[in-house]
Design goal:
Two copies of one chain form a homodimer.
Chain A lengths: L8 H11 L6 H12 L3 H17 L1 E2 L6 E2 L5 H4 L7 E5 L2 H10 L5 E4 L18 H8 L5 E4 L5 H14 L5 E4 L15 H9 L7
Parallel strand pairs in A: 3-4, 3-5, 5-6
Antiparallel strand pairs in A: 1-2
Helix pairs in contact in A: 1-2
Chain lengths: 204, 204
């Protein structure tokens, strides 16, 4: 469905703004805009202002580069968390995912991307130097790399491993294996092979 | 996926705003917000301001109740269009859909909804009186009802028919039949029956 004619230039502008978002086509954008048009004015104003504030007021934690409302994020500032282990992740979404598992109680370091020659992302574009600096300062015992098991993720992990190998720090990575709920039959052979080599004691 | 902890209250606020939209869950909302966070500030400001302007500056055409940037919309103001036929539609989206077919050159009347006792929408909630008034003023020859062939659509069409039957005006409705591209085999019998009764001369 293409739109040859919009009854209003402002409507068209709003539809265009929404359709710039990833995964939102013109038809969905129109539906969203017409929905907003029927909402109370203060609600729509709040929506608009939240977006504007988002860019102006959000901070990135000076230590781990996670999103934060303050200079140092709540996780870094939490003395109840294990300050000796840093989980290295690609982006903020990964921090949220890992926090949701409630299985990690250390600190984070957000790289802000992943090494990708295809997309022109070099190590210098990422927060790698600041990670090395955090490790060099001493108290860190373990660097836990929670990067995707993709070519880029593995490249980044290997680069970090080389960079940190001089430091007295244990380097770990997330376990790779058959995803829970997946059938063995459909697992690729590299994953299956890895899950055999890294077999773990049975627990229930 | 639920989010127990957000690294930032502002991030959470933005995600909540997006997830209020129809069809947007928390996970999609987070993806959209993180996308916006990586866009240039002026672009995000423009997005926010467009939403705010949407509610403040958009008009509804005084004649047909379509969305408009001016008091009378471009369609009503266009002397090149047939001023003797009014297409009655449920909402603004239908105007856009019909305009996109380029098969209609008359005027519109947007009811702003459809009679639905289930949802508590009564005839008085819709722009029906203003339609009767437009017809009573004279120049209209035909009222073309382009309402969905649903129970609510048919109820609304029947109500309009009764309201307008006293006026000297031809009342028509969109053709119902087998949708182009659909297989006869899968058509419901009411639609199939209707498409037999209303068979049309073959043309190619």
């Amino acid at each position: 469905m293409s739109f040859q004619s919009f009854p209003s230039a402002l409507l068209e502008a709003a539809v265009n703004e929404f359709s710039k978002l990833p995964g939102i086509g013109k038809k969905t954008a129109l539906r969203l805009v017409l929905y907003l048009l029927h909402q109370p004015t203060p609600d729509v104003e709040k929506f608009g202002n939240t977006l504007i504030r988002l860019k102006h007021e959000i901070h990135y934690c000076k230590r781990c580069h996670n999103i934060s409302d303050t200079e140092i994020c709540d996780i870094c500032a939490d003395s109840g968390r294990d300050q000796s282990i840093i989980c290295v992740v690609e982006n903020i979404k990964d921090v949220i995912s890992i926090e949701n598992t409630q299985q990690f109680n250390g600190l984070y370091h957000v790289l802000g991307g992943i090494i990708s020659p295809m997309e022109g992302i070099a190590p210098s574009d990422l927060e790698i130097d600041s990670l090395v600096e955090r490790v060099a300062q001493g108290d860190i015992q373990e660097i836990f790399m929670a990067l995707s098991p993709t070519m880029e993720g593995d490249t980044t992990a290997y680069y970090l491993y080389r960079k940190l190998s001089a430091c007295q720090v244990k380097i770990t990575t997330i376990a790779r294996g058959i995803a829970i709920g997946n059938e063995l039959e459909y697992a690729d052979e590299i994953t299956l092979g890895r899950s055999i080599v890294n077999r773990t004691p049975f627990s229930y």
